Amino acid sequence: MSLHPEIRAHVEAIEARLRELDEALAQPDPARLETCAQDLHRTLADSLSAFRHAAATGADPMSADLRHRLSLAQTRVVQLQQNLHYATHAISRTLDVLLPRDADAPAGTAPTAGPRTRTAAALNAYKG
Fold it and tell me: What pTM, to 2 d.p., does this model score?
């Protein structure tokens, strides 16, 4: 079986979208981050369709090189997920200290009429 010619372009597109997402994570631009995530999702869906089509036509969609490159891309995605998890956990711990829950308030104090979650309270304070 021969390598399907479009598959290499799809792998390159996945790699490019991952690089863009990585760059977006380093900048304080939520809109760009969302756009990059959507672009990656769309590219992955298009690639999956191309892989299936290539396999259905009898072509071998994956060479050893492309398998290796996709494996590296998968590793990068796992690293990005771990980084986001660690950052989220750190923010949550910080919010626990800075914005204790009403249930943790000293006895005899009235609950606040403000936001009900620490995250909402932090966002509300940031807006202010």
Answer: 0.60
